[in-house]
Design goal:
Keywords (chain B): ATP-binding, Helicase, Hydrolase, Nucleotide-binding
Organism (chain B): Streptomyces mesophilus
Number of domains of chain A: 2
Strand order of the largest sheet of chain A: 12-13-14-11-10-15
Order of helices and strands of chain A: HEEEEHEEEHHEHEHHHHHHHEEEEEE
Radius of gyration of chain B: 22 Å
Protein name (chain B): AAA family ATPase
Number of helices of chain A: 12
Largest interface: A-B, 35 and 38 residues
Strand content of chain B: 15-25%
Distance between the termini of chain A: 44 Å
GO molecular function (chain B): 5'-3' DNA helicase activity; ATP binding; hydrolase activity
Oligomer: heterodimer
Number of domains of chain B: 2
Strand content of chain A: 15-25%
Largest sheet of chain A: 6 strands, antiparallel
Pfam families (chain B): AAA_12, AAA_30
CATH topology of the largest domain in chain B: Rossmann fold
C-alpha cells in the first residue's frame, strides 16, 4: 500500500467517512450497463442458485434454480440467462464504423492498410464483487463446450440452443476482466475501491454493503458504525440485514431458510410424480408451484439488496467526471468486443480449455503493457493519483526558474535547451535519468543533467521541438511555467515479437499440433449431479 | 538434510579440483553432447561468468557461431569486456538497442568488438552478444548453431519463447537461489502449465525436456568460509556447495580501534566472524524507516573512517577497503534512495546502494543490508521471497552486516506461508519462511543491540 493511500485510510478512520483517492472516474461507465447479481449453491462449485439480471434498475429479471442439483433445472436457468444476456450482448454488434488498420499481408509480408469494422459501443457487465467476476468465468467455462442436440444428436444431455454461445461470451468477458483498465466486466467493489479509501482493510472492502456504508453512510451515522452494522447486523430470525453480495450465501440463510424450502420443493415434486389421477395431480402441482414461488421469493430477498447496492454504486461513480484517457482504453474494449463478435460469426470453435504457449505469453505481455499504460494514464488524468507518484519519487512538479538555449554537437546542431525546475518534491533522479511531460497530449522527454546550486533540477529537453534549428513555438518551457515531469513513460512499449504457434520452439514443447474439438468434461463416478 | 560426510571433509576436499572436474564435464556435454540443451546451476560467486567466457572461447575455437543471451545491458557489456580481456583477437559483436547510451562506451576502444543495432551487420562474427529483450526483435536471420543463455533462472519463460527460434542448441547458466522473475499482473491463470509464461526459462525448458544433462558448480569462490555453510544450508539445502577458501585465507581488520558505539561493535563482530546484526528496538515503521536508514549510513561511514584493510588469497599484500568495494542492499527502491540521501549527508561517496534485484550478480568485499522484514507489520510473499534474502546475504567476500528491527522472528511466526497451492506447480524448497528463520537464528549469534 502506498503512503498516500495509507494516509487516505487514516483520514477515513479519523473523519468516519471514506476519502476520495481519485478526482475523476478512471473507468468508462456505459449508458446502459447490464447488472448481474448471481448466487451460487454452497458446496457445489459452479452450481447456480439464482440471479437478478437486467439493464433496468426498477425491473430486474429474477432467475431461480429451485433444486440446484437438478441438471434439467440448471439448464433451464442457463437457457433463461442466455435469453436475458445474449440479446443485450448482441444489441451492440450491429452498429459499426469503418476503421483502417495496419495488417501484414500473409503472402507478400508487407504492411498493408485494411478497412475493418469497429462497433461503436460495447456491452458492459457489472457484478457486485471480484468473486462475481470469477463466477462469470466459471459459468462460461461450464457452458462453452456443451453440445446442443442440433450440434450432436447423440449427446446424452443436450444443452438448450443458445447456452454454448452464452458460455463463449461469458468466457470472453471473464478473460477481458484480467486485462488491466478494461471496462467490459467490472466488479462494483473494485470500482468503488479504486475511487475511495475507507477506514477498513482492503479485505473488508470486498463487502459491498460495508464499502458503501463508508462511502455514503446514512445520516447521523459514521462510516465505521454503518459498516459494522452492514457486516454483522441480523434480524430477529438471525438473518443478515445486509446479505452478502455473493455469489456465496450466508450459512444461516442456507440452513434455516433455503434448505427447508428446497426440501419442501423436493417433496412436492416427488408427490406430483406419485399422483394417482388428474385431480390429485392438479392439487400437487399447486403445492409444487407454491414451493417454487417460496424459493423464488427467498432468492429475491437475498439478491435485491445487492442489486440496489450496485446501482447505488453506479450513481456514486457517475458523480465523478470521466477521466479523459479512459476513452482510449474503452476503444480497446471495443476492438476486443468486435474481434470476438467476428470470431463467433465466422463459426470459429469456442476458446480452448488451455492457452497454448504462444497465446499465454502473448496475453501476459499485453496485460503487462495494459497495466503499465493504465498506471501512467491514471496519473496523467488525475492530480490526486499523480500526487501519490510524486510522493514515491516517481514524478515531480515545479516552476521553471531558468531556460537557456543550447545545441547538440552534431554536424547539424539540434536544439537541446536546458531548463531549471524548482521543486519541493524529492524525485529519485539518477545520473542521465529520462523524464517526461505531457505536451499537447504527447510525451516530451528530457534528460536529467544535475542539480544547480539552489537545488533546482536541471533538465535537457530532447525532442518534440520540430525539425528546424529553432524549436517550434511553445515546445520549450518558458520561465515561470509550472510543469509536471514523470520518471515513468507515458505509453507502454510493445513487447517482444513472439513466434507463430506453429513455430513454437523445442524449449516450449514444439508446435501444439492440430487443435482437436474440445469435449465437455467426461462424466465420472464422482459426478452425482 | 544430511550430505555425504566424506564429500565435506575439509582435509579431503580440493576446491580447485572439484571445480575443474565440474567445468570439464560441462564443456564435454556442451561441445560433444547430443542433447540440444545443457543446464548449469551455479551458487553465488561460483565462477559462472568465467564459465560462460571459457565456454564461449571453446565454442569459437571449434568454429561454431555463437550467440550469447544475457538479461541486462550491464551483464552483456561485462561479458564482452571479459571476452576481450581473455582473447583480444576474437571478433566479437555487440548487438544493442537504438537508445542513446545503449552500451558501455568502453567497448568502442576495442578494435575487435563491432557494435550495431542491426543483427545483419554482425553476421559472420564468432560471438554475438546481446540482451534477451534485444534478441527478441531479431528476425529473418540464419539460426545460430549455439547459444549461451546467462542468468537463465532470472529470464522469464516468455522471453525464452521469443528468442529460442534463433539457436539450435544452448547452454543455460544461472543461479536457482536468486530472485525468480516476476510479472506486474496476475498470472495464476497459467499456473501449473509446463509453459507458464511467468515462470523461469529453466523450469519451462526442463518441463519439456526432462532428460537434459544438468550440472552444478560445487565451489563458491566469492563467499568466505564463514558464509558459504550458512548460505548453502539456508538456500541450497539439497545441492550444497563449499567455499573455495578456508577460514584463515581472508581477514578484515581496522586501523582505528572502535569507539565502543554499537556501530563500531557490530563492525568488530563482523570483522571477526564475517557476520554482524545491528538490532534496533522493535517498532512498526514506514518502509524508509529513518532510524534504520541512519544506522545503515553510519555503519558505512565508520567502515570507511576506521581504515578497513582486507587480506585475501588474491594478493599477498593487504588491500585498503575502499568505497567501491562496499555495497548497501535494500528490498525497495525508495529505501535505496533514502540510504543514498543519508550517505550523502554524511559525506560518503562511491558506495553502491541498490535493491536486491539490481545487486544480482555483483560482488563486494563488505555489504551492509537492510533486512527486508525490518519494521514491517506483515510478512508478504514479496518480502519473504527466498531469492531476495539470498541475493542480499551472498554478495560479500569478507563480511555482511545486517541492520534490522527486533521482532522479525515473532513476525515470521505470526505469518506462516499462506499462498494458495497451485496444482502442477513444483513446490520450491526451501520456502522463504524457513530460509528466513535459518538466517535469522545464525545472525542472532552476532547480534549487537543499538538504541538510537
Amino acid at each position: 500500500m502506498s503512503l498516500i493511500s495509507t494516509l487516505a485510510r487514516l483520514e477515513a478512520v479519523q473523519s468516519g467517512r471514506a476519502q476520495p483517492t481519485a478526482t475523476v472516474r478512471h473507468r468508462r461507465l456505459s449508458e446502459r450497463p447490464l447488472v448481474f447479481v448471481p448466487l451460487t449453491t454452497a458446496g457445489e462449485a459452479g452450481a447456480p442458485l439464482g440471479a437478478l439480471v437486467g439493464t433496468d434498475r426498477e425491473r430486474p429479471r429474477l432467475l431461480v434454480v429451485p433444486q440446484p442439483r437438478d441438471r434439467e433445472l440448471r439448464f433451464a436457468f442457463l437457457a433463461e440467462l442466455a435469453e436475458e444476456l445474449l440479446p443485450y450482448v448482441e444489441s451492440f454488434a450491429g452498429e459499426t464504423q469503418a476503421e483502417t488498420r495496419n495488417e501484414t499481408d500473409p503472402e507478400t509480408g508487407k504492411k498493408v492498410k485494411v478497412e475493418v469494422e469497429l462497433c461503436v459501443d460495447a456491452p458492459q457487465l457489472i457484478v457486485p464483487s471480484r468473486a462475481g467476476v470469477e463466477f462469470v468465468r466459471l459459468l462460461g467455462r461450464s457452458m462453452r463446450f456443451r453440445r446442443t442436440a442440433e450440434q450432436d444428436p447423440d449427446t446424452p444431455y443436450p444443452a438448450p440452443p443458445r447456452v454454448p454461445l452464452l458460455g463463449r461470451w461469458l468466457t470472453h468477458f471473464g478473460e477481458r476482466a484480467h486485462v488491466p483498465g478494461s471496462a467490459q466486466l467490472l466488479a462494483m467493489t473494485e470500482l468503488l475501491g479504486r475511487h475511495w479509501a475507507t477506514g477498513q482493510s482492503s479485505l473488508e472492502d470486498q463487502h459491498l454493503g460495508a464499502l458503501l456504508a463508508w462511502i455514503d453512510p446514512p445520516d447521523g451515522s459514521s462510516g465505521a458504525q454503518a459498516a459494522f452494522e452492514a457486516e454483522l447486523g441480523r434480524d430477529k430470525e438471525g438473518q443478515l440485514l445486509c446479505p452478502p453480495a455473493g455469489p456465496a450465501t450466508d450459512p444461516a440463510f442456507d440452513n434455516r431458510l433455503l434448505a427447508p424450502a428446497i426440501e419442501r420443493f423436493d417433496r412436492a415434486r416427488t408427490a406430483l410424480q406419485a399422483a394417482e389421477d388428474g385431480l390429485d395431480a392438479d392439487d400437487r402441482l399447486g403445492e409444487l408451484s407454491a414451493a417454487q414461488r417460496e424459493i423464488a421469493s427467498l432468492i429475491e430477498s437475498r439478491t435485491r439488496p445487492t442489486w440496489d447496492a450496485v446501482w447505488r454504486g453506479i450513481d456514486l461513480l457517475r458523480t465523478l467526471p470521466e477521466a479523459p484517457r479512459s476513452a482510449e482504453r474503452w476503444t480497446r474494449d471495443l476492438w476486443s468486443y468486435t474481434g470476438h463478435r467476428d470470431r463467433v460469426l465466422a463459426g470459429e470453435p469456442p476458446q480452448p480449455r488451455r492457452d497454448d504457449a504462444v497465446t499465454a505469453a502473448r496475453k501476459l505481455q499485453r496485460r503487462e503493457e495494459a497495466q503499465a499504460r493504465l498506471e501512467a494514464q491514471e496519473a496523467l488524468d488525475d492530480p490526486l493519483v499523480m500526487a501519490g507518484r510524486r510522493l514515491t519519487g516517481e514524478a515531480f512538479t515545479g516552476e521553471v526558474t531558468d531556460a537557456v538555449m543550447a545545441y547538440s554537437e552534431d554536424k547539424r546542431p539540434r536544439p537541446r535547451p536546458l531548463i531549471t525546475v524548482c521543486t519541493q518534491d524529492q524525485p529519485h533522479l539518477g545520473a542521465g535519468a529520462k523524464v517526461y511531460r505531457s505536451l499537447q497530449g504527447k510525451p516530451q522527454s528530457a534528460e536529467f543533467v544535475g542539480y544547480d546550486d539552489e537545488g533546482g533540477v536541471v533538465l535537457r529537453i530532447l525532442d518534440k521541438m520540430g525539425r528546424g534549428k529553432e524549436p517550434d513555438e511553445g515546445s520549450v518551457p518558458a520561465k515561470g511555467d509550472r510543469l509536471c515531469w514523470t520518471l515513468f513513460e507515458h505509453d507502454a512499449r510493445g513487447g517482444a515479437k513472439l513466434p507463430d504457434a506453429e513455430q513454437t520452439p523445442w524449449t516450449h514443447g514444439g508446435p501444439p499440433g492440430e487443435p482437436t474439438a474440445e469435449q465437455p468434461d467426461p462424466l465420472t463416478s464422482e459426478d452425482v449431479l | 538434510m544430511t550430505g555425504s560426510p566424506s564429500a565435506f571433509d575439509p582435509s579431503a576436499f580440493d576446491p580447485s579440483a572439484a571445480a575443474a572436474e565440474a567445468t570439464t564435464a560441462i564443456l564435454r556435454d556442451t561441445l560433444h553432447g547430443t542433447d540440444r540443451g545443457v543446464v548449469v546451476d551455479s551458487p553465488p560467486g561460483a565462477g559462472k561468468s568465467t564459465l560462460v567466457v571459457n565456454t564461449a572461447l571453446e565454442l569459437a575455437a571449434a568454429g561454431r557461431p555463437l550467440m550469447v543471451v544475457a538479461q541486462t545491458n550491464a551483464q552483456v557489456d561485462d561479458l564482452v569486456l571479459r571476452l576481450a580481456e581473455k582473447n583480444p583477437d576474437l571478433p566479437v559483436g555487440r548487438l544493442h538497442s537504438s537508445d542513446a547510451d545503449a552500451y558501455d562506451k568502453a567497448l568502442d576502444e576495442l578494435p575487435q568488438v563491432r557494435t550495431s543495432s542491426k543483427a545483419g551487420d554482425l553476421a559472420g562474427l564468432d560471438v554475438v552478444l546481446s540482451t534477451a529483450a534485444k534478441w527478441a526483435h531479431v528476425k529473418d536471420v540464419e539460426p545460430w548453431q549455439h547459444a549461451i543463455v546467462d542468468e537463465a533462472y532470472q529470464m522469464r519463460s516468455d522471453a525464452l519463447l521469443a528468442v529460442a527460434g534463433l539457436f539450435e542448441r544452448a547452454l543455460f547458466v544461472g543461479d536457482p537461489g536468486q530472485l525468480d522473475p516476476f510479472s506486474i499482473v496476475g498470472s495464476e491463470q497459467w499456473a501449473g502449465l509446463s509453459y507458464d509464461p511467468s515462470a523461469s526459462a529453466v523450469s519451462t525448458l526442463l518441463a519439456h525436456n526432462p532428460h537434459l544433462p544438468q550440472h552444478r558448480l560445487p565451489v563458491s569462490w566469492r563467499l568466505p568460509a564463514s558464509a558459504a555453510p550458512l548460505i548453502s544450508e539456508a538456500f541450497y539445502p539439497f545441492t550444497k556447495f563449499r567455499s573455495g577458501t578456508s577460514h584463515g585465507d581472508r581477514a578484515l581488520s581496522f586501523g582505528v580501534t572502535g569507539d565502543g558505539s554499537a556501530h563500531d561493535r557490530v563492525l568488530d563482530e563482523a570483522a571477526v566472524s564475517g557476520w554482524g546484526l545491528l538490532e534496533l528496538p522493535a517498532r512498526h515503521t514506514p518502509r524508509t524507516d529513518p532510524e534504520a536508514v541512519r544506522a545503515l549510513a553510519q555503519v558505512v561511514r565508520r567502515l570507511l573512517d576506521r581504515g578497513g584493510v582486507t587480506v585475501s588469497e588474491r594478493s599477498p599484500d593487504p588491500a585498503p577497503l575502499t568505497a567501491d568495494r562496499i555495497a548497501v542492499g535494500t528490498a525497495h527502491r525508495d529505501q535505496a534512495a533514502a540510504v543514498r540521501t543519508a550517505l550523502a549527508e554524511l559525506g560518503v561517496q562511491g558506495v553502491t546502494v541498490d535493491t536486491a534485484n539490481r545487486l544480482q550478480g555483483r560482488e563486494y568485499d563488505v555489504t551492509v543490508v537492510l533486512h527486508p522484514l525490518s519494521g514491517r507489520p506483515d510478512a508478504t510473499a514479496f518480502h519473504l521471497e527466498t531469492g531476495r534474502l539470498c541475493v542480499l546475504a551472498s554478495r560479500h567476500r569478507h563480511a555482511c552486516i545486517v541492520v534490522c528491527r527486533a521482532g522479525v522472528a515473532e513476525l515470521l511466526d505470526e505469518h506462516p506461508s499462506t499462498e494458495p497451492v497451485q496444482l502442477g506447480v513444483t513446490v520450491k524448497f526451501p520456502d522463504g519462511w524457513d530460509a528466513n528463520h535459518t538466517v535469522l537464528s545464525h545472525l542472532g549469534e552476532h547480534r549487537v543491540s543499538c538504541h538510537p
